[in-house]
Amino acid sequence: MKWIDKLAWIYIKDRKILSTRSKGKDTFYFPGGKREVGESDHETLIREVKEELTVDLVPDSLAFFGKFEAQAHGHAEGIIVVMTCYVANYTGELKPDAEIEELAWLTYADKHKSSAVDQIIFDHLINHDLID
């Protein structure tokens, strides 16, 4: 079995979760991405969120949220994405950058717009009464 190691930022405001959609795609993903060689979880997440949304995560505020896995969206059957998630505060103004075309605040009703692993996280969020 092949694994894809990814990190995601879980940011909830007004009981909605921040999500992003890349240019030319129709699926939303939580901000974050793949680790580069030698990077820690925190380094990966800080770099990816800065690239995608122009904001700086506050390193001291990063807290582990959970680890989730599912079939990787857009990959061959049996390729599993392992998503390590953190919550964190940020400084700056959220705006799409790099490959990101749109940012959106999603509720549980929007779960179907997301990748399989994000849908599992949506279930976790609703089960813990964190989103509407």
TrEMBL record:
Cofactor dependency:
Mg(2+)
Query: Which ranges carry the Nudix hydrolase domain?
Result: 1-129
Entries under SUPFAM superfamilies matching the protein: Nudix
Transmembrane segments annotated in the record for this chain:
none
* Pfam families assigned: NUDIX
Q: What are the UniProt keywords, alphabetically?
A: Hydrolase
The molecule here is called NUDIX domain-containing protein
Q: Source species, please?
A: Emticicia soli
